[in-house]
Amino acid sequence: MRTGAQLLIDSLIDVGVETLFGIPGGVVIPIFDVLYDSKLKAVLMRHEQAAAHAADGYARASGRLGCCLATSGPGATNLVTGIATANFDSVPMLAITGQVRRDLIGNDAFQEADIVGITRGITKYNYLVRNAEDIPRIIHEAAYIATTGRRGPVLVDIPVDVSTSKVEGDPPVEFDLPGYNPEVEGNSRQIERAVEMINQSERPVLYVGGGVIAAGAHKELIAFAEAANIPVTTTLMALGAFPEDHPLALRMLGMHGTPVANYAVMSSDLLIAVGARFDDRITGKISEFAEHAKTIHIDIDPSSIGKNVQVNLPVVGDARQILAQFTPLIERRDRAEWWGRIKSWQEKHKLTYRNNGKLKPQFIIQQIREVTGGDAVICTEVGQNQMWAAQWFTYKHPRQFISSGGLGTMGFGFPAAIGAQFARPDAAVFDIAGDGSLQMNIQEMATVASNNTPVKIALLNNGYLGMVRQWQEHFYEKRYSHTELSGNPDFVKVAEAYGVAGIRVMTNEEVRPALEKALAIDGPVLLDFHVDREENVFPIVPPGERIDKMIDLA
Amino acid sequence: MKHLISALVKNEAGVLAHISSLFAARAYNIDSLNVGETEDPDVSRMTIVVHGDDAIIEQVIKQLRKLINVLKVQDLSDRPYVERDLMLVKVATPAGKRGEIIELVGVFRGKVVDISHRDISIELSGPEAKVDAFISLCRPYGIREVVRSGRIAMSRGVKDE
Q1: pTM summary value
Q2: What is the DSSP-derived secondary structure letter of residue A82?
Q3: Domain final residue, candidates A320, A348, A376
Q4: B160 lies in a domain?
Q5: 10-residue mean pLDDT series, chain A (554 residues)
Q6: Chain A interface includes B125 (CB < 8 A)
């Protein structure tokens, strides 16, 4: 005889969950009771939003299923931002919520929320469990859905009386999902036509999105790009999918992309999109995006194709398999004229910042790269910190850069870094933070302190909601409405109050020794970098403008 | 333009909410929606009539296909199909007019399903235009109540693969 709660934990272990992130509450006490002496490790977070982000960070850092657990009502609704974040970036995640007793559902019971209804639009699928016997099957099904096809979060809502009811024997785990066929092989005729288009193109560009990382296709991407001699630009979500120090790399494109990436895309005659979705931060003015180019779009999700732009040739399927099929068919062409233009853009328009003696965020990120040998896992918050982290690190490996790309969730980076550190205990994990974002989940200091999780927070403290302030500077006549964070605490003292080491850094000269000191500490550290307050992210494409119309450092 | 979307879905709680929210998210009002069991009791057929931009409807259809509890989606608008509306209508019967109305029912091959002193209830099925025409002919007598089923439709010829 096992209870529903026991069946749940046994099933989670069956599908490979080793660590989950959560907070107890009334209706999940039976589940936490099982976790009390389970081999499944539960990490106590301090806010459910952070539990969802930690599960998300765990999944992004490892490629495995992340798992979070919260109680009904406010516990469940606190997960919502984290679930939406994972959904937007196609992260495999399982969110378990408690629910009120079956006979109370719909009666406005204490801590009741219709979380299945609330999360319908932000999950890949969700379940309300009605019988304890169904738990093993539903968990297997949920894990399968979350980790196949275009990955995404699945929520399983379990009423407390289902958790406590007892079940004889081993309920079945087999499932049948006739409406879900995620294993798509690329159509061979489409693949041949794509190769033909690529071979004929004079100015091709590979535009690579997060789907390449999700598909584990980075090796196939490198092999294909090298065989074809085609330049590669990556979205924010794909940083690390193609080594940024590779001679074919144009690095990131879009609103804060490198000039060479944006010029190349705008001048190309063939855009090969792989696992990318033509987001507005990539395309800028969409009607003029890559206007001279034909487009091949490779994606696992047919609904991504043709959503934002007209595509000349869609190829639906797994990026890894399709790229591997491309490589033997491709002709290597020199395209000397095209590469000549690219090299001259690269020479003429390097990323740069003005060295005025003040502490520079770009310099800090370069230094983090150097002290970690370029191998650190970098999590970011959202805003200027995120864009500087994207521009100034030079990523070499997939799953090395972890950031909320689609939803743009401030407060994501710190709990995601906690999850990433649990997934990769031996890696150096940094959260590159802003003072606005960090304060949205600063309570997780208690989580890192109590677990001695060695996450290093590199706080780029400028006392502003910096990206909004920058927009106000460029586009709103410097009317800094409500972007100055005048009530900021002393972050070093905050860290110390939690039992976390705090180091304050005021000058460029102190950066390197402070980072070395932080890495020598076997535990969490907050580095409070007081950076040049009105430093901006350049280049920037004004919203709605063509992406080759960048504002760069004058 | 008008689209007639036919979807096979799993017969379970939440499917309807999933589907309607895809349309609601784009502020598209569903003109008519009909759900009923198919030959397989675990599977329901939904017939949805919606007006909207072709490209956006195509995108909605792709997203419908993506839903795990949706088995198959077709846009019937671009192929031959048979469609029917079922209507129950209660028409007032002013003095001496009942015979006239019953005659109309005969012409439209409807059926009288209930009669009282002051009104008559009629069942009628057919393509939308026929049902609309009947309503307009009855209007002068006074229409008390109309209940329509929403469109059901089926592609002509071979059964869908």
Answers
A1: 0.94
A2: H
A3: A348
A4: no
A5: 97 98 98 98 98 98 98 98 98 98 96 96 96 98 97 98 97 94 88 97 98 97 98 98 98 97 97 96 94 96 88 94 96 96 96 94 98 97 98 98 98 98 98 98 98 98 98 96 97 98 98 98 98 97 94 80
A6: no
